[in-house]
Amino acid sequence: xxxxxxxxxxxxxxxxxxxxxxxxxxxxxxxxxxxxxxxxxxxxxxxxxxxxxxxxxxxxxxxxxxxxxxxxxxxxxxxxxxxxxxxxxxxxxxxxxxxxxxxxxxxxxxxxxxxxxxxxxxxxxxxxxx
Length: 130
Known about the structure:
With 130 residues, this protein is α+β, with helices and mostly antiparallel strands. The chain is 35% helix and 42% strand. It has two helices and eight strands.
C-alpha cells in the first residue's frame, strides 16, 4: 500500500471520529434542553451550608496523601517460597534416565521481626478542636 493511501485512510478516520464526537455532543445538548426539569426538584445549596463549611475550614487543614514511616510489630507472615532441587541421572531397569531440575513452590509461615516500614497515608482533613 502506498503512503498516500495510508495518509488518506488516516485523515478519513480522524474526520469520522470528529464527526461522531461532535454529533454525540450536539445530540446530548438537544435532549438536555428539550426535557423540562421536574417541578418538585429542591435546590440543595443554601446559605447556612456555606457558613458551616467556612467554620469547618477555620480549624481544619487538608493533608495530602504521603508516605509515612511507621513501626511495625513482629508478626507471622505467609511467604511464597520456591526451591529448585537437582535429581541426578541414574540407570533404571537397564536404561539411562537423564537428571532434571524439580521445582517446588509452596507457602511457608515465617516470623518477621519488628521493623520500620513505609506506608501510604491517604489525603485527609486534620481538624484541631477548640
